[in-house]
Protein backbone atom coordinates (compact mmCIF):
# COMPACT_ATOMS: atom_id res chain seq x y z
CA UNK A 1 0.00 0.00 0.00
CA UNK A 2 1.15 3.55 -0.67
CA UNK A 3 2.07 6.05 2.06
CA UNK A 4 -1.16 7.98 1.54
CA UNK A 5 -3.11 4.68 1.51
CA UNK A 6 -1.62 3.80 4.91
CA UNK A 7 -2.35 7.27 6.28
CA UNK A 8 -5.94 7.00 5.02
CA UNK A 9 -6.41 3.57 6.63
CA UNK A 10 -4.99 4.93 9.89
CA UNK A 11 -7.44 7.86 9.72
CA UNK A 12 -10.36 5.44 9.26
CA UNK A 13 -9.15 3.38 12.23
CA UNK A 14 -9.05 6.53 14.39
CA UNK A 15 -12.57 7.49 13.26
CA UNK A 16 -13.76 4.01 14.33
CA UNK A 17 -11.99 4.50 17.66
CA UNK A 18 -13.74 7.86 18.02
CA UNK A 19 -17.15 6.20 17.71
CA UNK A 20 -17.95 6.45 13.97
CA UNK A 21 -19.53 3.06 13.12
CA UNK A 22 -21.47 3.76 9.89
CA UNK A 23 -19.83 1.39 7.38
CA UNK A 24 -20.85 3.37 4.29
CA UNK A 25 -19.29 6.54 5.66
CA UNK A 26 -16.14 4.72 6.81
CA UNK A 27 -15.81 3.10 3.36
CA UNK A 28 -16.20 6.50 1.66
CA UNK A 29 -13.55 8.07 3.91
CA UNK A 30 -11.31 5.09 3.15
CA UNK A 31 -11.65 5.75 -0.59
CA UNK A 32 -11.56 9.52 -1.10
CA UNK A 33 -7.97 10.78 -1.57
CA UNK A 34 -8.01 13.66 0.94
CA UNK A 35 -4.56 14.80 -0.24
CA UNK A 36 -6.18 15.91 -3.52
CA UNK A 37 -8.27 18.49 -1.62
CA UNK A 38 -5.45 20.25 0.24
CA UNK A 39 -2.66 22.51 -0.99
CA UNK A 40 0.17 20.37 -2.45
CA UNK A 41 2.63 21.51 0.23
CA UNK A 42 0.26 20.23 2.97
CA UNK A 43 -0.41 16.85 1.31
CA UNK A 44 1.85 15.03 3.80
CA UNK A 45 -0.41 16.24 6.62
CA UNK A 46 -3.73 15.62 4.80
CA UNK A 47 -4.89 12.78 7.08
CA UNK A 48 -4.21 14.44 10.45
CA UNK A 49 -7.06 14.97 12.96
CA UNK A 50 -7.32 18.70 12.32
CA UNK A 51 -8.58 21.25 9.81
CA UNK A 52 -6.09 22.53 7.20
CA UNK A 53 -5.74 25.84 5.41
CA UNK A 54 -7.09 25.72 1.83
CA UNK A 55 -6.38 29.37 0.98
CA UNK A 56 -8.83 32.29 0.64
CA UNK A 57 -9.04 32.37 4.47
CA UNK A 58 -10.88 29.03 4.56
CA UNK A 59 -10.21 25.52 5.86
CA UNK A 60 -10.99 21.91 5.01
CA UNK A 61 -12.75 20.50 8.09
CA UNK A 62 -11.09 17.84 10.27
CA UNK A 63 -11.92 14.24 9.22
CA UNK A 64 -14.01 13.56 12.33
CA UNK A 65 -16.43 16.45 11.78
CA UNK A 66 -16.90 15.43 8.11
CA UNK A 67 -17.69 11.84 9.15
CA UNK A 68 -19.90 12.91 12.06
CA UNK A 69 -21.94 15.34 9.91
CA UNK A 70 -22.54 12.80 7.12
CA UNK A 71 -23.54 10.11 9.64
CA UNK A 72 -25.88 12.59 11.39
CA UNK A 73 -27.72 13.27 8.11
CA UNK A 74 -28.90 9.59 8.11
CA UNK A 75 -29.60 9.50 4.37
CA UNK A 76 -30.25 6.42 2.22
CA UNK A 77 -28.07 5.70 -0.88
CA UNK A 78 -30.72 7.25 -3.17
CA UNK A 79 -30.99 10.61 -1.35
CA UNK A 80 -30.60 14.05 -2.92
CA UNK A 81 -28.46 16.20 -0.64
CA UNK A 82 -27.54 19.90 -0.59
CA UNK A 83 -24.25 21.00 0.96
CA UNK A 84 -23.60 24.64 1.85
CA UNK A 85 -19.90 25.59 1.90
CA UNK A 86 -18.07 23.50 -0.71
CA UNK A 87 -14.65 24.74 0.42
CA UNK A 88 -12.13 22.18 -0.86
CA UNK A 89 -14.89 19.82 -2.06
CA UNK A 90 -13.73 17.02 0.27
CA UNK A 91 -16.95 16.68 2.29
CA UNK A 92 -18.95 16.72 -0.98
CA UNK A 93 -16.77 13.89 -2.31
CA UNK A 94 -17.34 11.80 0.85
CA UNK A 95 -21.07 12.56 0.78
CA UNK A 96 -21.30 11.68 -2.92
CA UNK A 97 -20.25 8.11 -2.14
CA UNK A 98 -22.96 7.75 0.52
CA UNK A 99 -25.99 9.23 -1.31
CA UNK A 100 -27.39 9.46 -4.86
CA UNK A 101 -26.78 13.08 -5.76
CA UNK A 102 -25.11 16.14 -4.21
CA UNK A 103 -25.56 19.83 -5.02
CA UNK A 104 -22.96 21.96 -3.23
CA UNK A 105 -22.86 25.76 -3.05
CA UNK A 106 -19.73 27.87 -2.45
CA UNK A 107 -19.61 31.64 -2.09
CA UNK A 108 -15.97 32.07 -3.16
CA UNK A 109 -15.60 31.67 -6.95
CA UNK A 110 -11.92 30.69 -6.70
CA UNK A 111 -12.63 27.85 -4.27
CA UNK A 112 -15.71 26.78 -6.27
CA UNK A 113 -13.68 26.56 -9.49
CA UNK A 114 -10.95 24.50 -7.83
CA UNK A 115 -13.44 22.13 -6.20
CA UNK A 116 -15.40 21.79 -9.46
CA UNK A 117 -12.27 20.60 -11.22
CA UNK A 118 -11.25 17.93 -8.71
CA UNK A 119 -14.84 16.75 -8.13
CA UNK A 120 -15.45 16.36 -11.88
CA UNK A 121 -12.72 13.74 -11.76
CA UNK A 122 -13.46 12.06 -8.41
CA UNK A 123 -17.21 12.53 -7.80
CA UNK A 124 -19.32 12.82 -10.98
CA UNK A 125 -22.63 12.95 -9.06
CA UNK A 126 -21.74 16.33 -7.49
CA UNK A 127 -22.82 19.67 -8.94
CA UNK A 128 -20.79 22.66 -7.68
CA UNK A 129 -22.54 26.02 -7.72
CA UNK A 130 -21.12 29.46 -7.02
CA UNK A 131 -23.45 31.65 -4.96
CA UNK A 132 -24.91 32.50 -1.58
CA UNK A 133 -25.64 29.17 0.04
CA UNK A 134 -27.86 30.85 2.62
CA UNK A 135 -30.36 31.04 -0.26
CA UNK A 136 -29.93 27.30 -0.95
CA UNK A 137 -30.61 25.98 -4.47
CA UNK A 138 -34.35 26.64 -4.91
CA UNK A 139 -34.48 25.37 -8.50
CA UNK A 140 -33.22 21.95 -7.33
CA UNK A 141 -35.34 21.69 -4.16
CA UNK A 142 -36.66 19.77 -2.33
CA UNK A 143 -33.69 17.99 -0.75
CA UNK A 144 -33.82 14.90 1.47
CA UNK A 145 -30.83 16.19 3.42
CA UNK A 146 -29.05 19.53 3.80
CA UNK A 147 -25.65 19.84 5.46
CA UNK A 148 -24.10 23.20 6.27
CA UNK A 149 -20.31 23.27 6.75
CA UNK A 150 -19.94 26.87 7.96
CA UNK A 151 -21.28 28.39 11.18
CA UNK A 152 -24.78 29.86 10.74
CA UNK A 153 -25.28 33.03 12.79
CA UNK A 154 -27.99 32.34 15.36
CA UNK A 155 -30.29 29.99 13.47
CA UNK A 156 -30.61 27.60 10.52
CA UNK A 157 -31.06 29.86 7.44
CA UNK A 158 -34.85 29.98 6.81
CA UNK A 159 -34.49 29.42 3.04
CA UNK A 160 -32.86 26.05 3.76
CA UNK A 161 -35.82 24.98 5.93
CA UNK A 162 -38.10 25.87 2.99
CA UNK A 163 -36.10 23.64 0.62
CA UNK A 164 -36.24 20.50 2.77
CA UNK A 165 -38.44 17.58 1.66
CA UNK A 166 -41.06 16.37 4.17
CA UNK A 167 -39.28 14.20 6.75
CA UNK A 168 -35.90 15.48 5.55
CA UNK A 169 -32.93 16.31 7.76
CA UNK A 170 -30.73 19.39 8.14
CA UNK A 171 -27.38 19.24 9.93
CA UNK A 172 -26.01 22.72 10.61
CA UNK A 173 -23.56 24.35 13.03
CA UNK A 174 -25.22 27.32 14.73
CA UNK A 175 -23.46 29.93 16.85
CA UNK A 176 -21.20 32.95 16.56
CA UNK A 177 -17.48 33.84 16.70
CA UNK A 178 -16.46 30.46 15.21
CA UNK A 179 -17.79 28.33 18.08
CA UNK A 180 -21.22 26.82 18.29
CA UNK A 181 -23.37 23.74 18.39
CA UNK A 182 -23.97 21.26 15.60
CA UNK A 183 -27.74 20.88 15.44
CA UNK A 184 -29.97 18.42 13.61
CA UNK A 185 -33.42 19.54 12.44
CA UNK A 186 -36.14 17.09 11.41
CA UNK A 187 -39.96 17.20 11.50
CA UNK A 188 -40.04 20.57 13.28
CA UNK A 189 -37.69 19.44 16.04
CA UNK A 190 -34.11 20.57 16.67
CA UNK A 191 -31.58 18.42 18.49
CA UNK A 192 -28.12 19.48 19.71
CA UNK A 193 -25.45 16.96 18.63
CA UNK A 194 -22.00 18.36 19.50
CA UNK A 195 -19.96 21.43 20.36
CA UNK A 196 -18.08 22.50 17.24
CA UNK A 197 -15.85 25.16 15.76
CA UNK A 198 -16.35 26.34 12.13
CA UNK A 199 -15.55 29.26 9.86
CA UNK A 200 -18.55 31.59 9.63
CA UNK A 201 -21.29 31.44 7.00
CA UNK A 202 -21.11 34.82 5.27
CA UNK A 203 -24.36 36.15 3.84
CA UNK A 204 -24.63 37.92 0.49
CA UNK A 205 -23.34 37.59 -3.03
CA UNK A 206 -20.04 35.95 -3.90
CA UNK A 207 -16.91 38.08 -4.09
CA UNK A 208 -14.43 37.64 -6.92
N1 LIG B 1 -16.98 21.43 3.38
C1 LIG B 1 -15.67 22.05 3.16
C2 LIG B 1 -15.24 22.94 4.30
C3 LIG B 1 -16.00 24.18 4.30
S1 LIG B 1 -15.27 25.60 5.01
C4 LIG B 1 -14.62 21.03 2.84
O1 LIG B 1 -14.89 19.84 2.87
O2 LIG B 1 -13.50 21.44 2.51
C5 LIG B 1 -16.69 26.65 4.80
C6 LIG B 1 -16.89 27.16 3.40
O3 LIG B 1 -18.14 27.88 3.39
C7 LIG B 1 -15.83 28.15 2.93
O4 LIG B 1 -15.26 27.70 1.74
C8 LIG B 1 -16.61 29.45 2.73
O5 LIG B 1 -16.15 30.21 1.60
C9 LIG B 1 -18.00 28.92 2.47
N2 LIG B 1 -19.10 29.88 2.71
C10 LIG B 1 -19.18 30.86 3.64
N3 LIG B 1 -20.35 31.52 3.52
C11 LIG B 1 -21.02 30.94 2.49
C12 LIG B 1 -22.28 31.18 1.87
N4 LIG B 1 -23.12 32.14 2.27
N5 LIG B 1 -22.64 30.39 0.83
C13 LIG B 1 -21.82 29.40 0.38
N6 LIG B 1 -20.62 29.14 0.93
C14 LIG B 1 -20.22 29.90 1.96
From TrEMBL:
UniProt KW keywords: Cytoplasm, Methyltransferase, S-adenosyl-L-methionine, Transferase
Molecular function GO terms recorded: protein-L-isoaspartate (D-aspartate) O-methyltransferase activity
Keyword hit for Transferase: yes
Transferase listed as a keyword: yes
UniProt GO cellular component terms: cytoplasm
Membrane-crossing residue ranges in chain numbering: none
UniProt main location, coarse: cytoplasm
Record Gene3D superfamilies: Vaccinia Virus protein VP39
Pfam families named in the record: PCMT (PF01135)
Record-listed E.C. numbers: 2.1.1.77
Localization per Swiss-Prot or TrEMBL: Cytoplasm
Stored InterPro entries: PCMT, SAM-dependent_MTases_sf
Top-level class of the enzyme under EC nomenclature: transferase
Gene Ontology biological-process entries: methylation; protein repair
Similarity section: Belongs to the methyltransferase superfamily. L-isoaspartyl/D-aspartyl protein methyltransferase family.
UniProt protein name: Protein-L-isoaspartate O-methyltransferase
Originating gene: pcm
Amino acid sequence: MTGTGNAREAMVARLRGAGITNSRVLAAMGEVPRERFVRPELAGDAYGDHPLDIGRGQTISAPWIVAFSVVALEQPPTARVLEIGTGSGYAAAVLSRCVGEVVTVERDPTLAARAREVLAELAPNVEVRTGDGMRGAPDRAPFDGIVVTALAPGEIPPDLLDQLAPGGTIVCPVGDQRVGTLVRYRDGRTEELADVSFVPLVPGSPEA
